[in-house]
Amino acid sequence: MITSFDIGGTAIKSAVATADGQIGAAQRVPTPTHDFAAFAAAMQALIDAGGPTQGVAISIAGVIDPDSGRIKCANIPGIDGRTLAADLSAVFGLPVWILNDADSFALAEARAGAGRGHRNVFGLILGTGVGGGLVIDGQLVGGPGGLAGEWGHGPVAAQFAGTPPQAIPRFRCGCGQTGCLDTVGGARGIERLHGALGQPALDSRAIIDAWQAGDAAAERTVAIFIDLLAGPLAMLVNTLGASILPVGGGLSNSAPLIARLDAAVRAAILRKTDAPLIVPGQSGAEAGLIGAAWLGLEKLGNQRG
Question: What is the rounded distance in angstroms from the CA atom of residue 5 to the CA atom of residue 146?
Fold first, then answer.
C-alpha cells in the first residue's frame, strides 16, 4: 500500500491506495501555506493515521521541474522553490513521488475514467484557467520544465471571434505574456469576455445559467468563448492524435457547455467522427488521489522490479 495525497492551497486530502489502484476513504486537513515544517507535519499526521505505507504519492497544484526537482507553487509559498520530493522524503523516511494536478487528472482519466480503452488521451482542465496533461499508451508524457500539456500559454488567442466577428481584448496573462488562451479560456476568461462585451460583472456560473435560460447576452458570450477555444483545441487534437479529451475543472460541471465545445471541435478537426471527443471526466472529486495513486504504485513496482 501507499499513501496518496491531493494538495491544494486550501486543503490536503489523503487516502490509502492499494496495488489494484483502489483508494480508501479520504481524509482532509487545512493546508499550512507558509511554513514548510507545519506543512510536512500535517502530511505526517495523515500518513500515520492511514497505517503502514511503502511510499507517498502526491498530486499538487504546482509545476515540478523534472531536472532540478524544484516546485513552483504560488498558492503555497512555504514550499515554493523547494526540492519538495527530496525534502519530504527526508522527513517521512519514505520514497515520495509528485506530479502536477492536471497531469494527475489526465492519468486518472486514462487509467480509470473516460479515457479507458483509448491510446492517446489528453486530459483537459477548464477551471479558473486552462491546463492539461497527455497520456499515451497509459503513460504520462512529460517534458522540460514539467510543462508538457500546458496548452493555455503563448500569445495565440484570436483577436476576433464570434458571428458577427467581435474584437477581443489582448488580456495580460499571469505567465507574463499577453493574449494567452488562459486569459479567455477558463472561468475567469468567460467572465472577462462577458465584461468586454459590455455586460455587468457576473461569475461564470451565473453566465452559464443565464445562457441556458435563453439570455441573449449570455449566449453571445458563450458563443465567443466556444469560438476562441475550438480552433486551438482542434489543432491540439490533430497534432496529438488524441481520441478522447476528458474535461475536469469547474466548467466541466456544465454538461451543455462541454457538449457545445465538443460539437465545435469535432466540426473543426481533420478526422470526422460522430463519437463524442470532449467529454466530462469520470474520476470526479478524487481525480488527484486516483492519479497520484497510479503514479506511486507504478514507481513502487519499478523499484521492486
Answer: 19
> What three-state secondary structure class fits 268?
helix
The pTM assigned to this predicted structure is 0.94
Burial class from Cβ neighbours inside 10 Å (0-12, 13-18, 19+) for residue 273 reads: exposed
* Contact residues for 136 (Cβ-Cβ < 8 A; gap 6+): 119, 120, 121
**Radius of gyration of the chain, Cα coordinates, nearest whole angstrom:** 20
Whether residue 136 contacts residue 142, with contact meaning beta carbons closer than 8 Å, is answered with no
122's grid cell: 489528453
Yes or no: say if 11 and 45 are a contact pair by the CB < 8 Å rule.
no
Q: Which helix (H) or strand (E) holds 36?
A: helix 36-50
Question: What tens digit of pLDDT does each residue of 253-289 get?
Answer: 999 999 999 999 999 999 999 999 999 999 988 999 9
Residue 266: its H or E element: helix 255-268
Provide the 8-state DSSP code for 171. Answer: P
